[in-house]
Amino acid sequence: MSSRTRRAVRSRGLFQLTRTAIAAVAALCWLGVVAALCAMPLVWSQPGWLLGTLEPAVIAAHGDARHLLLQFTAGLVAIVALLGLGLVFLRHLLRFVRAVGERQPFTAGNVQRLRRMAWLMLAMETLSILIGLYADWMGPPFGWMEVGGGMSITGLISVLMLFVMAHVFAAGTAMREDLDGVV
pTM, whole model, 2 decimals? Predict the structure, then answer.
């Protein structure tokens, strides 16, 4: 088996592993969405489920039980939004990985995907920061809402990296198109 054939077989395995990892992360996102959507009606139909776990001072800090339930629901909606953005990001990532796996990396579609992924990542980082601030405002019993962990330096670096990669892929696409025109 030639070295080129071995590399091709290895890279197919790597792309398959990457697609499997993306599917696993997407499944976890869907699980989070379903859990949050199921929790919303449960909180309103069985308020004792949440309120019974909290100290009266925590409830009083939010005005009353009704306000606390509204604020809790708002936190769940924000989490669903964050996970939804993550699912859209993963869809673009999967399409990008497929195109690269098919040896079509430098295309206008991939440039567009990378740009969209950069904007989605920026939106997710911003929403994650807002959720972190909201969870801090809600108080220690609601620290679990901080699913994104607040501000993340690695997330911000990822945003910058995606914008740079989009620019690099745009240049590569232009070079490929120029080369195609020559041949």
Answer: 0.85
